[in-house]
Specification:
Blueprint lengths: L6 H16 L3 H20 L6 H24 L7 H10 L5 H10 L1 E5 L4 E3 L7 E7 L2 E5 L2 E6 L7 H6 L6 E4 L3 E7 H10 L1 H22 L3
Antiparallel strand pairs: 1-7, 2-6, 3-7, 4-5, 4-6
Helix pairs in contact: 1-2, 2-3
C-alpha cells in the first residue's frame, strides 16, 4: 500500500478528533475540532480534482465552533461587581455564582429611599420584593411596631407568596439603598432558569427563618 504525504493529514486530523472526544472541557473539545477540520482542508485541496464540498463543510463546522468558542470565552470572563452589587452579594447571595447573581440583579433595579419612605403598604397586595444594602426598616401593624428589618433582609417575601393584602406596613427609618424587583419580572426570570429555583428558594427559606428567630422571645 502506497501512502502519499497528504494521507498523513487525514490520519493527523482523526487523531485530533480522538483527542477532542477524550477531553472533558467543552472549550478544548471545540479547539481540537477546529484543528481537525483545518488539517483536513489541505488534503481536499491537494487532490487531482479539488474536493470542494468537504472543504466548504469543513469551513462551516470551523465557523460554528469558532463562534461557540468566542461565546465560551465571553461567559468565562471574570465578573466585576459594582460596589452596591458586591455589598448585596456579600449580604446573602454567596451561594450563587457571580454571573448568576449579575443576571438576577439585571432583572431588578437599584433604588434609594429617604427616612419615612414606605415600601409595603398595609391592606394592599405586595407586587415587588426588595433587599436593602444600607438603612433599616420598621414593620408596623395598625401603627404598632412589631419588628425591624436590617440590611440583607428580603422585604415582602412571605406576603408575596400568599398574594393576600398585606397585614403590615414596612417603612424605612433611615436613608437606604436597596435592590428592587417586580414580582412578574422575578417569576419570569426563575421560570427561564429552573436550575436556580432551588438555590433561590433556599435563600428565601433562610431569610424567613432568620426573621422568625429574631421575633421569638429569648
Amino acid at each position: 500500500m502506497n501512502i502519499q504525504a497528504t494521507d498523513y493529514l487525514v490520519h493527523f486530523s482523526n487523531i485530533l478528533l480522538i483527542v477532542a472526544y477524550s477531553v472533558r472541557d467543552i472549550l478544548w473539545l471545540r479547539w481540537f475540532a477546529v484543528a481537525a477540520a483545518l488539517t483536513n482542508i489541505p488534503y481536499y485541496l491537494l487532490q487531482g480534482t479539488v474536493l470542494w464540498p468537504p472543504v466548504l463543510w469543513a469551513l462551516v463546522f470551523t465557523a460554528i465552533n469558532l463562534y461557540q468558542i468566542a461565546r465560551i470565552y465571553l461567559e468565562r470572563r471574570p465578573v466585576v461587581l459594582s460596589e452596591d452589587e458586591q455589598k448585596l452579594y456579600d449580604l446573602g447571595f454567596r451561594s450563587l455564582r457571580r454571573r448568576e447573581f449579575v443576571s438576577l440583579s439585571l432583572v431588578g433595579e437599584w433604588r434609594s429611599a429617604e427616612a419615612g419612605e414606605r415600601v409595603v403598604t398595609e391592606g394592599e397586595p405586595v407586587s415587588s420584593l426588595c433587599i436593602p444594602i444600607s438603612g433599616r426598616a420598621e414593620v408596623r401593624k395598625q401603627d404598632e411596631r412589631i419588628g425591624a428589618l436590617r440590611p440583607g433582609d428580603i422585604i415582602g417575601t412571605a406576603l408575596a407568596l400568599t398574594g393576600d393584602p398585606s397585614p403590615v406596613e414596612v417603612t424605612f427609618t433611615e436613608p437606604a439603598r436597596y435592590m428592587w424587583w417586580s414580582l412578574p419580572s422575578l417569576r419570569r426570570f426563575v421560570d427561564q432558569r429552573p436550575d436556580l429555583r432551588v438555590t433561590l428558594q433556599g435563600l428565601v427559606n433562610r431569610d424567613l427563618a432568620g426573621k422568625v428567630e429574631r421575633l421569638l422571645p429569648p
